[in-house]
């Protein structure tokens, strides 16, 4: 909803909204209905909007940069750069002169005359000073990612207009704050980017509560009290989320002057919170006086769960060892910067869960509260992090910021660990401060270091990861690994890493860098998305959450349901398949009987149908097997008779919430089966052949093929008089092709040309069939290690508009990122996206495509269709563009434009070459003779 200028009044953390900004003597609907209840709850008046989706306009002036020097308006919350003010800067580029000045007029309720009132900022970048009605609201606050508040009881004018003035400095006057927050490898912004509100309490009140709820049902609540009055006890009641009481009320006495009182109880057999089972409860704590009068009440959501770090063993939740499968997440949206909303938080969490992730690291600062609320509700393990990117806060600056982060976030069951900065940005003098505010005593991590019983070292190569896990003896949980610059990392290399990390006893999982490309829309660049060169395009997702290919690879590898014998299915359904599939359950808490299993028998569409996809021949479901976490079992599929006549079988697994967690498509028909159906090699008018001026011309009724008689290579093809521009092949991608002998002549009703070579290429045979299908048989000989090998052709990229193919798709692949694609008939239109750098159109058109049975290239001349008679063909479509300074993420491509390959290269990361990322990252060893049969057809 659009907020009014005068705000919206909220009762308590989850109370009902009532009319705000009332003049003296007025009463809102909720107050009239239940004034007594309202008087005992914390009241909140939003001065800004509640999030970036629902802002409120304030008066604003920026002191330098764009639109500086004159007053206008700006939505709050927001970062001012996204509304035409100031300057954009990425890390390392300090602009201490840039400030924003805000003014806002509001009217608080008249009955607040008898309340203590606090002005609360949820987050303001970076140094903030506020005045209320001309008086200082409190000391300057330094630190851009933290909640802070000032008591304004004596400065507020209830029932009257009040003027709030705020000055926000983009940089801090404290050098340690700038080093920790502003000199980091991420975008730096300015402004009040999280909500601003007033909180009104009774004179004697509960300031906050901190909950420690264990998996066995024991519950401790630290109630922090403030003010003086007649209250003499605390009474608490646990309920489920519907409000039904759980157990009996429990109490603790309050003595005069108490500022902290501990309540304890135990709940019998609570439903435990985990990322797989995010069961939540609520507790209300009431401060009462002797006559049973409630003075103040607060309530909080929480979950019963226990987190343990067992040195030399692993990380346990509720007594069960877990593996964290996560990503690093910046809080960012391309049109609003760090100002976000619950809508964006939900989107990100659901996308992570779609990838079968169970964890997230908040890099490199604490997130919005709505993100943590949703992590609790939806089920996601969280590492909550103090800012400090390679530099740290000094003690004076850092101590209140640790207190702010922990006291704000302490009750979220999703948070497993606190992170004290990042990559050297930790001040060890602050380590003990976390426990002072956290009754759960969560472990503190130093991301990048071996600390707190966990080695979190970043970007270890595959071999060093193996040594750490097998030879050192500490728990290993890298808080950053497989840095996914552009199209590298993340899914690329993950299969090798996870086979290692998933099986080793000391592994606690890890966090990929990073979830999204940190790109922003620049109005000063005509609306272009800026990712700061190669500094910020590190995402599995694009800036607007576009899914890159690694998204699907991660989903595949991190699925909790996996094949126990994957090698049996690498070439489709095995010949002895009888409907039984051995599965492994990688859940930590969930039996596979809660999942649903559905199968389909598929018939793929053909090139002549000119559409992608398939027809479902038959379908059904299978009874979910009873497989406990960490064990294996058998799924039995009730397939109908004649099922082998289908082209493929599809098996989909969905979880209890209906979310797809894994899908396999296994071929039944072979490449040769498809070739026999599609290629027309039967009788017809004889093909003519002639040799003129070293050009061999083969002509059927509608198709004419020319070959260079000096090389044996294709020179051109026309169909019905239209040039299809395919030429100069099949040239070997590695080595030479020196023609030694050329023969040609009729072959039945067709015409055949045979070429013999010295060098890598050994033999080529062309045959033009009466139907116009052009058959190519080739053989080459290669040994040794190579990034790629096969043969290729030239074809102008400018004449291509799209492609339809039967094979793995819809995304391109690399040697170390073959998972996450599925066999089907796919279509994609031509695009020239440089992954993570511009365009963000996915799937990318250009690159390597796996297990192609046939492909129909859409060109300005018509359809150029290629059919493979052999399995495991890689089709290369042109050479993609890469972003600036791609480091190890620009793999080699062969000469030419279209290639038919037996091996393709792997891709690296920002920091490591492909060979350092595991066995599949190295070159392929060629073992001698290779040969294939391809068929080409041309049509309008």
UniProtKB/TrEMBL annotation:
Domain Glycoside hydrolase family 2 immunoglobulin-like beta-sandwich: 205-305
Domain Glycosyl hydrolases family 2 sugar binding residues, every copy: 73-200
Domain annotation Glycoside hydrolase family 2 catalytic: ranges: 313-522
GO cellular component, one term: beta-galactosidase complex
Keywords associated with the record: Glycosidase, Hydrolase, Signal
Secretion signal span: 1-29
UniProt-annotated stretches for the region Disordered: 610-632
Catalytic activity as recorded in UniProt: Hydrolysis of terminal non-reducing beta-D-galactose residues in beta-D-galactosides
Entry GO MF terms: beta-galactosidase activity; carbohydrate binding
Pfam families attached to this UniProt entry: Bgal_small_N (PF02929), Glyco_hydro_2 (PF00703), Glyco_hydro_2_C (PF02836), Glyco_hydro_2_N (PF02837)
PANTHER family reported in the protein's UniProt record: BETA-GALACTOSIDASE (PTHR46323:SF2)
UniProt name for this protein: beta-galactosidase
Lineage: Bacteria, Bacillati, Actinomycetota, Actinomycetes, Kitasatosporales
